[in-house]
Each structure stands twice: as structure tokens, then as C-alpha cells.
Design brief:
The structure holds two protein chains of two kinds. Helix content of chain A is 34%, strand content 21%. Chain A has a five-stranded mixed β-sheet with strand order 3-22-21-18-17. In chain A, strand 19 and strand 20 form a beta hairpin. The longest helix of chain A has 25 residues. Chain A starts with 27 loop residues before the first helix and ends with a helix. Chain B has one domain. Chain B has 16 helices and no strands. The chains are: A alpha+beta, B mainly alpha.
Chain lengths: 517, 325
């Protein structure tokens, strides 16, 4: 009996199987492999993967346990596969979206034309929790605010890709994307031979290139560092991993100081100038002089150094205004406004509680909707109407009425599912997809992303803080299997020079001596 | 290199060396006690507690000095900051904080060691034989050092790691010698003054006691190759303090620390360029030019106290010069 035999799609859009239960064409090689595999065999590979994660310390700590139990980050070994034409669509959509978001940020921190032209109400912008009044009018290098964007995509019941949210501040998870790939290549090497999977390991090279572009123009070999809140931050593994992969320093606020608007790090050889910070510390904590005075994570004077153009920051300050879920609803309009294009990737239909009509609708239909606070993340501050009790719905409705500016509602998207290995068999679980967009002189999207899985049966919440896991995401080369194989042959050094010479000679002879064409 | 990262390297070196030294010491003491169990007053566990400087701490927490409790205290007690588990955990936390500085293999080694160590307990140590457990701890330390040698770039991180390791080693050798010397001398006196001693008691104290001491710093075979005439207290002391080539002698270890510090600063002049170089250079010259007779004449206990104080001073000077952030 094959692993996939009693798998049920249960009416959802399934990434691997069509509605009639046959595998989709781009999943066929994987399907054949899984069918030829015994459960014990698959289980053994899961254990191997888990052991690798534990030894490499890719774990998170279960708090409230005296002994500090550490668990490996849950990685499901069945990959999520995206065929070439779908990826082309996603890439086009993300590129367009991030271009518009950067133009929007440039605009709201300068002339606010989009507000004056009546496309987005000004109050919504300036009342956004992460709008930074202090940055009104400040110039940033190349007018780019968002250098790294993690946009969350979901697919609905008919398989359409939609944008669920943008993460323009400090999107995380890219290390899991890279590590998942390494682990899958170790655990399932043969699968990579059968599927033409596009590589993703140049992500950190591209990132470093972009970061170096942010250095003050007179700095020729700039010093780039990654600013982390420290070892107790839940994303610390990622910070350390990225710093290691890029070969840059990993610094904490206490390693840095500002003198005459220049940023320095404290080294064994005295102060050393820092030119670019890939900061993984939120705006609020970045500089106690400008923002929260109680922050011990930041560097006093950093913001002034940034304003003076002596240090590059990625992402820029104040990008969180675009993460506001109310502002999110306007992104399609931004795309039309700034680019005069129609959006490639649609949003999820969104009701804004500050509009009286929408508010009325939301309150009346709250048991059918997902309600979200405008500035919460990680699966907090939200209500999933169809899965909530009446009392919870009533309670939430009151919250919305008390503060309509800060709530939105969306119909529950029947997120697509992907098979996962659970208790010795395959079961469908809901997934989303977070590709990482790098924005420098050009916009680049590494072919892949973090596929997050809601591992609890029936759950729609994919966040790792809420029992989510991840999957490796494979973007296939154009044309799938055959073309990938021939591309590999081309890359192989030819054996025997004389032989290939003669072959080439023979192959070309009909043309040289042949008829005109 | 970031001062904070250098600080972590330095302490990884110290903690791993400390864990290894503790494993060696307990291993040897445990086995020496088996051999000397029939003495009217066998070697007490309390002398081990004095070596580590933990006697008071221990007596606050535990009433009995029985072997299991002692092993629990030295190996698994996380409220004892010098226990093997505490040291490995601290080394791992430091390594985690500078994962991007050290090689992945070094991180995996220390991480796996910590995770494996947590699977052990006193019960399991007795089940599997204490010797094999302590050997495993030593092996883990050597594996880490080997991986560091093979994968870590020659440079500051490595020099701080080594400086920590050798400074810790010099201090541990001086301390273990100090306490054991004192103990063995006292035992010898008591054995001599007693009218009736069991046959062979004198030999146990005067010969086996010193051999155990040599073994506890991994020096027995090296000593034998150096001195062919047998084991005497003066020779053992001279070997462990002044021998230039034995890797755990105080002189050799301090010489290595000096080498690290000189590479870090790049200073090739005879005069020191900072407080750390001055402190380590002064002690190294003293050990280089001192003769064994002069050393014994200075009263060994006082001299060993002086060595330990100097090691502490070197540690403070390194911190003040490089590691403050």
C-alpha cells in the first residue's frame, strides 16, 4: 500500500492532488517516490531530519520548563511544489507590489500626494501605529524604504493566489527556508535528481549585495553588521545564521556607540566604524533618544546618524505604516495610482471597520468572518468567527465598535492544503507561502519561500507561535522534468574532448554543406 | 573582532578546560580511593572540594561527604557554577552567542555534548562505570579542541579561545598541586607518627599518592619519560610547574597564553604593549629562569599561592585590555 492511498482532499484546494484524487502533473515524480516507500522508511527519514535539526541547534525553547526543554523546529518533509508558470505569476505580482509599497512610503514621508488626491484618507496614514512622524521629510538612500519584504500569500478554494499581508518591517523565517532546503537535500537526495528544483542558496549573497549598496557613498569597502536584540530573541538563530552566511558581524546594541553622528562598534582593537546595519530590532527599540527611552536594545544617537547619512539601515525607519492592515486594504489602489497598472496578485476581500457601512456588515456577520486588529501579528489579536463561540463574537464586536479604526474583517479563506506526514500517514493541512523580496537597484525574488503549515488538524493559523511548522518550497524550472535534466547535462563537463569535437563536427556538417535556410 | 565576541571565545576556552580538569580530578581521586580504601584514614573527598574552592559552598548545601553526593555536586549540580554540566552549558551559551564567529562544526560539537550530557545522571554514571563517563567528558573536550584546530581560522578568535584555555589550565595545575601537596604531606606525617601502620601504608602515600596526582593532570607518562629515578614530591612539583614541554605545566601553559596575546596585539618588541602582556610576560620569565631548588626553597605552598594570584591578575588584565564592552 502506498503512502498516498487513502489521502482525502476533503473539498479544499490541494497543492498535490486534483479534486478527483489524481496527483497534479508537477507532483508526479514525488507521488511515484512516495508510493514506492514504506511508512517505516519515511519515518526513519523524519527522525534523521529531526536529529539534524537538534544537533544544529535549530530549536526553540519551551518556556516555563525548569530544565529548558528544547524542541526542533517542526519541519514537514513533504515539499510544497510550485510549477514554473505559477512562480512567474507570483514573481511578477510581488515585484509590482513592492515597487508600489516603496513609492507609497516615499510619498507618505514627503508630499503625501496619494492623500491629497483622495486615494487614501490622510488620517488613516498618520494614525497608523507605526507611522513615524519624526521621519517626515527625511531622505533615505535611493529612496528605498523596504529592502527586504516578506509577503504572505494564500490560495483560496479555486487555487487563486492572494496576498494576505505584507511584512515591511523585519520579516523573519528566511533561515528556515534555507535550512529546510539543506535538510531535504540530505534526507531525500534522489528527489532533487528527479525534480528540476531551482536553487535558493544565493539569497544571502543577494542580500549582502543590497546591504552594501546602502553604505554612505564615500565608504569603499563598507562594514556591514546585523543588529540583533540578542540571544534571548526568538529569531536569534536566524540572526546568527544570516550573519554567518554573509560573513558579517552580529552585533547587539551594547556593542555599538555613536560619536559625532558616526556609528562604531567596540572591538578588541578599539572602535571600528560601521556603515550599514541590517537591523532586526523594531523601530521602537532602535534608539532610546528618539523612540522608547526604556529600550536597552538600541543605540543612543543611531537615528541622528541615519538622518545625517552616515549609516545605512535596512529596512528603513517607519516602514510599519505599510504593514497596518487597514493600509494593506489600499495596496491595490496604490498599484493603480503609482504604477498605472492593475494588480497582478489580488488582496483578500477586506472590510474596514472605520467605514460605517462596513462596520455594520462586520458586526452582523461576525460569525462568518476573520477579524484582525490592524497592528497585531503572530496570530494574536484575531477572531476566527466560524470557529469562535457566540460570547467571543459578541466580545469582539464590542472591541471593534470601541476602536473601529484599528479593525478589519475578511471572509474566512479556505486556505489551500498540502499533504503532511502525521502519525504515520498523510493528511491535508492548511498552508500559506511567504516568499522573500529583495529590493535594491532592482527587485529580486529568490525562487522559493517559507511554506508555513498549520500542523493542528483543521487549524487555519500557521504561525510558529501557534503550533505552526514549515515545509521546503520547490519552484520548478520551466518545462519541468525533461528540461531540468537536459540543463543538468549541459552543466556537466564533457568527457573526452576529441569525441565531443567530432560529434559537434558531424552535427554541424549538414548545415554548412546544406541548403540555404 | 567585537570585544563581546572575544570575551565569549575566551570563556568558551576556560569553561571547556575547566570541565575537563574536573573530570580528570574526580576520575583519578575515585580510583585512588579504591586503592587506598584500607588505610586507617583514606584520602578524603573534602580535599577535592578544597581544590575547586567549593568546600564552603558544598557544606552549606550538603551534610554528608559521600561519594555519590560529591559526584552529583561536581558533575550535575547546576547551582554549582563550576560543575561539569554548568561549565558545558555556559560554554554552549557563549558559543550560541557567537555562532557566526566559530565554525558550524564547533557549535555542533558543543551543542551535542551538552545535549548528551543532560541524558546522564549519577545513577547512570555508576551503571556505566565512572571511568567511562569521565573519559567521555575528556574526549568531548579534546574533540572540541581538535575541531577548533581544524576548522577555525588562525586569528583572534582562536587566540582568545586558546588564551582562555591555557590560562585556565595553568591555574588548575597550580591549584591541584597546591591542595594535593598539602594533603599528601599531612598524610605522610600522620602515617610516620603512628606507632602501628598497616604494611604498605607508607608506600601508598609516598608513591601512589604522587602517581595519582600526576595522573590527575594527565602527566604520569610524561613524567616517567622525563625522570627515570622514581617519584618524589620535589620532582613532581618541579615537573608540573617548570617543565617547558609538558602541555599542562604552569610554565608551558603561561608561555602559550603569552604567545596568544602577542599574536593578538602583533607586538614583536621585547617590551610589553599593554597590561595583559606585562602580566603574562612577567610570570613567564619568572618560571623560565627559576631553578627547581630555588622554587622549593621558597616554600611550595606560598609559591603556588603566588602563581594562582598571578593567573588571576593575567585574567583581569586581559579583560581590561580587550574584553570590556
Amino acid at each position: 500500500m502506498g503512502l498516498c492511498d487513502d489521502y482525502q482532499t476533503e473539498g479544499f484546494y490541494d497543492e498535490m492532488f486534483a479534486a478527483d484524487g489524481t496527483p497534479r502533473p508537477h507532483y508526479e515524480p514525488l507521488y511515484r517516490t512516495l508510493q514506492g516507500m514504506r511508512v517505516e522508511e519515511f519515518q526513519a527519514r523524519c527522525e534523521l531530519a529531526e536529529l539534524t535539526l537538534i544537533h544544529q541547534g535549530i530549536t526553540f525553547t519551551v518556556y516555563g520548563d525548569e530544565r529548558g526543554i528544547e524542541k526542533p523546529f517542526p519541519l514537514d518533509l513533504i515539499p510544497r511544489i510550485v510549477p514554473a508558470h505559477e512562480w512567474e505569476h507570483i514573481e511578477r505580482g510581488l515585484t509590482q507590489r513592492v515597487r508600489a509599497l516603496n513609492l507609497f512610503l516615499q510619498d507618505v514621508y514627503h508630499d503625501q500626494k496619494i492623500c491629497r488626491d483622495g486615494v487614501i484618507p490622510r488620517e488613516l496614514v498618520v494614525n497608523a501605529a507605526h507611522y513615524r512622524r519624526e521621519f517626515q521629510g527625511a531622505r533615505v538612500p535611493h529612496d528605498i524604504y523596504v529592502h527586504i519584504c516578506g509577503t504572505d500569500l494564500v490560495r483560496d478554494r479555486d487555487g487563486t493566489y492572494r496576498v494576505l499581508e505584507d511584512n515591511c518591517r523585519t520579516p523573519s523565517g528566511v533561515s528556515y527556508m534555507l535550512e529546510s532546503r539543506l535538510i531535504l537535500m540530505r534526507v531525500f537526495p534522489t528527489l532533487f535528481r528527479q525534480n528540476a528544483v531551482r536553487p535558493i542558496d544565493h539569497y544571502t549573497t543577494l542580500l549582502l549585495e543590497n546591504l552594501r549598496e546602502l553604505a554612505p557613498p564615500d565608504r569603499h569597502d563598507p562594514t556591514v553588521a546585523l543588529l540583533t536584540p540578542g540571544v534571548y530573541n526568538s529569531a536569534y538563530f536566524e540572526h546568527s545564521f544570516l550573519a554567518q552566511q554573509m560573513g558579517i558581524e552580529l552585533v547587539e546594541g551594547r556593542d555599538l556607540f555613536v560619536n559625532e553622528n558616526m556609528v562604531y562598534m567596540k572591538t578588541t582593537r578599539g572602535p571600528q566604524r560601521v556603515d550599514v546595519l541590517y537591523r532586526r530590532v523594531d523601530d521602537d527599540f532602535l534608539d532610546p533618544v528618539t523612540f522608547r527611552p526604556d529600550s536597552a536594545l538600541g543605540v543612543p544617537g543611531l537615528v541622528n546618524a541615519y538622518r545625517a547619512g552616515n549609516i545605512g539601515l535596512a529596512n528603513g525607519i517607519g516602514t510599519g505604516v505599510a504593514d497596518d492592515k487597514v493600509i494593506y486594504a489600499y495596496v491595490p489602489k496604490m498599484i493603480e495610482y503609482y504604477l498605472a497598472e492593475s494588480p497582478v496578485l489580488p488582496n483578500v476581500e477586506t472590510y474596514l471597520a472605520w467605514r460605517p457601512d462596513d462596520l455594520k456588515y462586520i458586526v452582523e456577520h461576525i460569525d462568518q468572518m476573520v477579524v484582525k486588529a490592524a497592528n497585531e501579528s503572530g496570530g494574536y489579536g484575531m477572531l476566527i468567527g466560524p470557529q469562535a463561540s457566540r460570547a467571543e463574537c459578541r466580545e469582539f464586536a464590542e472591541k471593534i465598535k470601541a476602536d473601529p479604526r484599528n479593525y478589519i474583517a475578511q471572509p474566512l479563506v479556505a486556505l489551500s492544503r498540502c499533504p503532511c506526514f502525521v502519525d504515520g500517514r498523510l493528511e491535508g493541512r492548511h498552508v500559506d507561502l511567504r516568499p522573500y523580496v529583495l529590493c535594491g537597484k532592482e527587485i529580486r525574488v529568490v525562487p522559493g519561500g517559507l511554506t508555513r503549515v498549520a500542523l493542528r488538524r483543521g487549524s487555519y493559523v500557521v504561525n510558529s507561535s501557534q503550533g505552526g511548522g514549515s515545509k521546503d518550497t520547490w519552484v520548478l524550472r520551466n518545462g519541468g522534468e525533461e528540461e531540468g535534466a537536459s540543463a543538468m547535462q549541459q552543466a556537466m563537463p564533457r568527457a573526452g574532448g576529441a569525441m565531443s569535437q567530432s560529434q559537434r563536427g558531424r552535427a554541424s556538417s549538414p548545415r554548412t554543406g546544406g541548403a540555404p535556410c | 573582532m567585537l570585544s563581546r565576541d572575544a570575551d565569549s571565545c575566551f570563556w568558551i576556552g576556560r569553561y571547556i578546560e575547566r570541565a575537563e580538569a574536573t573530570a580528570r580530578m574526580i576520575d583519578v581521586h575515585y580510583h585512588f580511593r579504591l586503592e587506598s580504601a584500607w588505610l586507617s584514614e583514606p584520602m578524603r573527598w573534602s580535599s577535592i572540594l578544597s581544590i575547586s574552592g567549593d568546600l564552603e559552598e558544598y557544606q552549606l548545601r550538603y551534610a554528608d561527604e559521600d561519594e555519590r553526593t560529591i559526584i552529583q555536586f561536581f558533575v550535575f549540580d547546576t547551582t554549582n557554577y563550576n560543575s561539569i554540566l554548568s561549565c558545558i552549558r555556559a560554554a554552549r551559551e557563549n558559543a550560541r552567542a557567537i555562532r557566526e564567529q566559530i565554525s558550524s562544526e564547533m557549535w555542533q560539537c558543543i551543542n551535542t555534548t551538552y545535549l548528551d550530557l543532560r541524558e546522564w545522571s549519577v545513577e547512570r554514571v555508576y551503571e556505566r562505570s565512572p571511568h567511562s563517563f569521565f573519559q567521555w567528558v575528556k574526549d568531548a573536550s579534546h574533540l572540541f579542541q581538535g575541531i577548533a584546530n581544524r576548522t577555525l581560522m588562525m586569528g583572534e578568535s582562536r587566540d582568545f579561545l586558546d588564551a582562555g584555555r591555557f590560562l585556565e589550565r595553568a591555574g588548575q595545575t597550580a591549584r591541584i598541586l597546591d591542595v594535593r601537596y598539602h594533603d599528601l604531606m599531612r598524610l605522610a606525617e600522620e602515617t610516620n607518627s603512628r606507632a602501628q601502620t598497616p604494611a604498605g601504608a607508607e608506600e601508598i602515600v609516598n608513591v601512589h599518592g604522587w602517581i595519582a596526582l600526576l595522573k590527575s593532570v594527565g602527566a604520569y607518562e610524561a613524567y616517567r619519560k622525563t625522570f627515570h629515578e622514581g617519584v618524589t614530591p620535589a620532582r613532581v612539583a618541579a615537573f608540573l610547574i617548570l617543565n617547558p614541554s609538558f602541555p599542562a605545566s604552569v610554565r608551558h601553559s603561561i608561555g602559550r597564553v603569552e604567545g596568544c596575546l602577542r599574536r593578538i596585539s602583533g607586538n614583536r618588541e621585547p617590551t610589553p604593549s599593554n597590561a595583559a602582556e606585562r602580566a603574562v610576560g612577567r610570570l613567564y620569565s619568572e618560571l623560565t629562569y627559576l631553578t627547581p631548588d630555588e622554587m622549593i626553597a621558597r616554600e611550595l605552598h606560598l609559591f603556588l599561592g603566588h602563581l594562582q594570584a598571578q593567573c588571576n591578575e593575567i585574567g583581569s588584565a586581559i579583560a581590561a585590555t580587550y574584553l570590556q564592552y
